[in-house]
Amino acid sequence: MAGIAGWGKLALAEFVGTFAIVFIGAGSLVVDGIAPDGVGITGRALAYGFTVAVMFYSLAHISGGHFNPAVTFGFLVTRRVSLRRAGTYVASQILGALAASMVLKTLIPSEVPGAASLGAPALNFKLSSLDGILIELFLTFFLVFVFFGTAVDPRSPKAVAGFAIGFTVAVDMMMGSFWTGGIANPARAFGPTAAVFLWDAFGRVTSVYVWQSHYIYWIGPLAGAGFAALTYQLVLLRDE
Predict the structure, then answer these.
(1) Mean pLDDT of residues grouped by 10 in the chain (240 residues)?
(2) How far is CA 143 from CA 6, 49, 101, 195, 200, in A?
(3) What contacts 3, CB < 8 A, 6 or more positions away?
(4) Is 86 in a helix, a strand, or coil?
(5) Residue 218 and residue 55: Cα distance in Å, rounded?
């Protein structure tokens, strides 16, 4: 059982990792809108994925490197973390995402294109809510499946885990960016959405619309993560 200092380290690791991911992930969306040639979907995806990989290699030895409520949910349903630890992780991830988004809102001038939404994800108008949920479900399934296959499975060489997880995040975004944003991380969706909404409380922007499809970024990823974690645990790790 971790002591107070131990819980503090776990919380800090998840906070910092998620802060970095959202700061770079959301920030790169704004940069794409103002840079002369933009960075494109590929650039945004690589920025997002590389940050996940770097943070994983830096902090996985402390907290496991979840940085994502969906990943933590996968660990919870397979009983790899306690409810208390899962709650600590998710709270830290949400706070890290919100803090990063509020910092971005403070730093980026309001007249900059993309500053108003700050990369808060929204469902493409051509999709139904069910379509969006299923896309986020499958993208998160792949992410958590790879997480278990590289960071959890004792038969896997652990040196590749961060790269594999980060690369999966990047290709997820490349596929899903046009449709749902390719987020596969409820905290990454929540941080910018909440920051935009809170900014509106001070009369800076109009932002109620950002919540309209927000539930998609919780239902889809949590369902996909649970399915992936249970599949890997009960089928591929059954004899381990």
Answers:
(1) 78 98 89 70 92 97 97 98 97 97 85 71 90 97 98 93 97 94 95 84 57 93 98 88
(2) 27, 11, 23, 26, 33
(3) none
(4) helix
(5) 22
CB 108 within 8 A of CB 29: no
Looking at domain 4-236, which of 1.20.1080.10, 1.10.15.40, 3.40.50.2300, 1.10.1040.10 is its CATH number? Answer: 1.20.1080.10
Question: Which pair of structure tokens corresponds to residue 60?
Answer: 């996985």
How many C-beta neighbours within 10 Å does residue 159 have? 9
For residue 84, give the amino acid letter. Answer: R
pTM exceeding the 0.90 threshold for the entire prediction: yes
**Residues comprising the chain, all counted:** 240
Kindly state the tokens that stand for 210: 């950002």
